[in-house]
Specification:
Elements lengths: L8 H86 L2 H12 L5 E9 L2 E8 L2 H12 L4 E14 L2 E12 L3
Antiparallel strand pairs: 1-2, 2-4, 3-4
Length: 181
């Protein structure tokens, strides 16, 4: 017996293939949507995490900025302190200079021939006033002063004769330039 299928089997296959394609496409679409949604959720979480990190870093930056400001103040104070210490050290080094200079000056005064009456100075200028027996004593005193390690140059400003207690003496004024350092 011959069997004849009168049902359109091609149409059933087409319908089955169409259903399969719809199912595959709808499944692919759902999977695509799930992937998109999961990527969106992952990105949103990542952005939230990064924003929290940014807030933490900004807070840390504020703390470090304050510390940096404190460090700058410490550096400025350190520089001021170094300058003050340098001044103190310089003063400490040169505190004996006036004593040594006066000691040197007294050794250079010709004994019994010159008497100093006034000594004044400012900066590197020194003014010496005194009384001498004669011009030779004044010249010797000037030469002695020029050999001093503290004096650069000596100039005679004035010299005039005066009478003190009935004795003729020479009253003189010298201008000296001191060596610096």
């Amino acid at each position: 017996m011959i069997r004849i299928n009168l049902l359109p089997y091609m149409e059933k296959r087409k319908e089955a293939g169409l259903k399969r394609q719809i199912i595959i496409l709808s499944t692919a679409f759902v999977v695509f949507l799930l992937i998109i949604v999961s990527l969106h959720i992952y990105t949103v979480r990542g952005i939230g995490k990064l924003e929290k990190e940014i807030e933490g870093v900004e807070a840390r930056l504020k703390v470090l900025t304050k510390i940096t400001g404190d460090i700058e103040k410490v550096k400025e104070n350190k520089e001021v302190l170094k300058k003050k210490l340098a001044i103190i050290e310089n003063l400490e080094k040169s505190r004996l200079d006036p004593v040594l200079f006066l000691d040197d000056l007294t050794t250079r005064v010709p004994e019994g021939r010159i008497w100093l009456t006034a000594l004044s100075g400012s900066g590197t200028d020194l003014r010496v006033e005194g009384v001498a027996r004669d011009n030779t004593a004044i010249a010797d005193f000037m030469k002695n002063l020029e050999w001093s390690q503290y004096i650069r140059s000596v100039d005679l400003v004035s010299s005039r004769q005066t009478i003190i207690s009935g004795v003729k003496l020479k009253e003189f004024t010298l201008s000296c330039t001191m060596k610096k350092g």
